[in-house]
Design a protein that fits this description.
Layout lengths: L12 E4 L2 E4 L4 E2 L9 E2 L4 E3 L10 E3 L4 E2 L8 E2 L4 E3 L10 E3 L4 E2 L8 E2 L4 E3 L10 E3 L20 E2 L9 E2 L4 E3 L10 E3 L7
Antiparallel strand pairs: 1-2, 3-4, 5-6, 7-8, 9-10, 11-12, 13-14, 15-16, 17-18
Length: 191
Amino acid sequence: ANATNCTQCGVGKYQVGPHCQDCAAGQYQPGIGQPSCVPCVPGFVTNTLATPGASSCTACTAGWYSDMPTKACFLCTAGSETNALAVAGASRCSKCPVGYYSAVSTTACSVCPSGWTTDVGLAVGGTKCTACAAGHPSTSPFTPCIACSAGKFQPHVGQSFCTLCSAGHTTDMLSKAGATNCTACAAGQFS
């Protein structure tokens, strides 16, 4: 009588009839003697990346992402957020929109308040909010800090409006834009 040895397919493989086949790229098999492989989903990567025969599928660490299980996880940088935020397994990284910021990709992008702008101005990908300078308010985080027009002033940083310098007073910039204060004219003078 002829003896035959029975063998089971190892990890990273599946059985097709009497043969073992490597799991396709993007799929994995952690067990032995299995009839099929398991798909690894975006946000997770196989231990062999684009090479067939993977035996594991691991989530990208929080703050990292992968849109395909055959690609390595990439760092999602400040000024962006992952679709999983502080949870592992992100498949996307998106820049914060204009007027929004994020210091780390594991927190959602937040809107800057009026009178403030992001560190990148009117571009996407802000990492922090910065107060508009005195004399240069902003009505919303979606508009730039703009100098108060001639005859108006704003003495404080981070403001959203300018105040009219009343009759008998003058701004520190006289007839120029960007004034930060308004003072009364000296006795015998007018404005």
